[in-house]
Amino acid sequence: MKSLVLAEKPSVAREIARVLKCGIKNKGYFEGPQFVVTWSLGHLVTLAEPDDYDKKYKEWRLEDLPMLPAIMKLKVIKQTSHQFQVVRNLMNRNDLKELVIATDAGREGELVARWIMVLANWKKPFKRLWISSQTDDAIRDGFADLKTGASYNNLYDAAVCRAEADWLIGLNVTRALTCKFNAQLNAGRVQTPTLAMIVNRETEIKQFVPVDFWTIRADFGDYFGDWRSKSGNSRIFDHGQAEEIAAKVKGHPGVIKEIHTEGKSEGAPLAYDLTELQRDANKRYAYSAQKTLSILQDLYEQHKLVTYPRTDSRYITSDIVPTLTARLRSISVAPYAELVKPLLQKPLTPTKRFVDNSKVTDHHALIPTEQPLRLVSLKEEERKLYDLIVRRFIAVLYPSYRYDQTTLITVVNDEPFHSQGKVVKDKGWRAVTSKAAEKDDADDKALPEQTLTMQNKGDVKQLKACKINKSKTKPPARYNEASLLTAMESPGKFIEDEELRETMKGSGLGTPATRAEIIEKLINTSYIERQGKELVPTPKGIQLVNLVSPALKTPELTAQWEQKLSNIARGKGSKAEFMTDIRKNTMELVKSVIADTTVYKADNITRTKCPVCGKFLLLTNGKRGKMLTCPDRACGHRQPEKQKDFGLSSSRGESRVNQRLIAQYSQQTDIGSSLGELLKAAMAKESTGKDKE
To answer: Which ranges constitute the DSSP H helices of 548-574?
Structure first.
């Protein structure tokens, strides 16, 4: 009897099959003496559509809401149904004794496999492969230590709750908004509070009124000092006061009243999780969060050089420590060889800053694998991202950065001027990182660093010059992807409830795996747009935030959900209670939309008229580029932005529009009749071409 292995992607299945010696390739699976390895293509099964429950839901009507199916059904995704049939046929084979779930080791990966098992009616035993890297050794070790499948039932329950909750909230609120305001509007538990943060920041910027302030800098020849008040504030908001201070010190000598030298130690930054890597890649290379995840996925699956990407932990567990030497040896090539060398010359003793079992749940921090490194095999973008990961991994094993920090206070006619400098004792981990990293770590509020020569308390200093500098207060910065990821990961400051704020530290808005997708979705639906590195809300996005219920645009709702989902995953929460609350939430949110008296005004109206109903078309983002869309949903006409013909299209909905156009022109004139025949022929030709494809 053989075991059936279900991977999430063909590429992963291929590698598992090779390690398990499954050399016979068939359509949709590999087979060997002991294993049969097949794959999904992401999700093969999904929640049923509204009209699968009742045909009336094919039409979007406000009076049919909310949609609350008593039992949520599953259906096979049509586009990948061929692979589902392969998997189901394999699951029905009599010579297969058990199933090994080898989909991504996380909540969504569990859902992918379990839903397939439900629709394929799998009743035999099953186990779980849970690994954090795709190297041959990791795969072999994982199969030697398969977990009991039932051990992950709670994780599956949490995944089902997340999916069903998103269906109920997302589909109902989206339909309610669209029907109420006759516009293409959609909302969701993660994307809407994320959008609200961006909109609120834009409001703060627009309402911000800059205020003038002044600072004073004194030049003492071999060093400079900045005036600070007794409370430590360097800003003076009264120009007259600044001039008084400058006049007061002019022509007077300074006396060094205080010299304070303190030895300081600064530990290395924590190892990367996905969100932190996305932040750094955005700062250094302007990579979008989605681009970073895509590159990282190739480093994990194709090159096998890094561990599981979608991790939210920045620590490793104690069982990984014995593998660190092998990982260091694998990266001991230029340009990392000299950095690794001192680490390999003595036993490694990583601290709790790196090793902490209590701070690792599903997966440990993102670190290099033991796979030998061949930099020449990597593309430039892959090398850049890999360099960040490797340097951070090496840095966290290095000693602390140690320096002596000296602070001087020079008093001139009773006015204090502060100076600060440092002497490096041991570069420690900073010898590993780049200058760009040090610049990113700089504290804007700290005193400016300078090189201080030997000074003594009581020394008299000649005041060479005193300069007043004028500045203006600045509004808060717009979000870029790096700062938005930070806000999504830890939106605690937006939450008043202290317990919920603590919960959000570990969950945030979305998961590390979905945050990039949420940002891209907000852009593709024209709610925000990229302007250089900044993310700016569109008028449509601003209006949407004003239309949705307050409960859906604040982080509290997601915090409550994530808190309950985490409890369910740990076996400490009730799936039934959670879904009861979600259904209640859904009804309240739909009611709030129906009761809303706000007027929505589209900001993307063009001067092009709909050829069917005559209304001015809207410019929208489509999967294949910009589209012109009729604002009347009952009409439904759509056409590419640059289309100059009569709405010719390959989609079924648009073909109905074309048929109406043909009828209109055929009835009007003889020329119209000929044109109608030409259009029919063109459509038939296009349809035939599509069928052949």
So the answer is: 550-553, 555-569
User: With respect to CATH, is domain 163-205+478-595 assigned 1.10.1200.10?
Assistant: no
What are the domain boundaries of the chain? 2-145, 163-205+478-595, 212-268+401-472, 274-395, 605-692
Q: Which of 308, 336, 398, 403 is catalytic?
A: 308
Residue 551: predicted pLDDT: 86
Show the tokens assigned to 435: 């200058």
Residue 651: per-residue pLDDT? 38
CATH classification for the domain delimited by 212-268+401-472, as one of 2.70.20.10, 3.40.309.10, 2.60.120.10, 1.10.10.10:
2.70.20.10
Residue type for position 211: V
One-letter amino acid at 396 equals V
Q: What is the pLDDT of residue 479?
A: 96
Instruction: Indicate the pTM of the whole model.
Output: 0.83
Note if 398 is an active site residue: no
- How far is Cα 286 from Cα 480, in angstroms, rounded to an integer? 10
Q: Return the pLDDT at 496.
A: 62
Residues of the chain with pLDDT under 70: 434-446, 492-507, 622-624, 643-693
Q: Are the C-beta atoms of 122 and 99 separated by less than 8 Å?
A: yes
What residues pair up with 265 in beta bridges, in sequence order? 402
Name the nearest CA neighbour of 530 among 516, 519, 515, 514: 519
Tell me yes or no: is domain 2-145 CATH 3.40.50.140: yes
The confidence score (pLDDT) of residue 435 equals 61
CATH code of the domain made up of 274-395: 1.10.290.10
One-letter amino acid of 196: A
Long-range CB contacts for residues 558-561, cutoff 8 Å, separation at least 24: 558/189, 558/190, 558/193, 558/507, 558/509, 558/510, 559/495, 559/497, 559/500, 559/501, 559/503, 559/504, 559/507, 560/500, 561/162, 561/165, 561/189
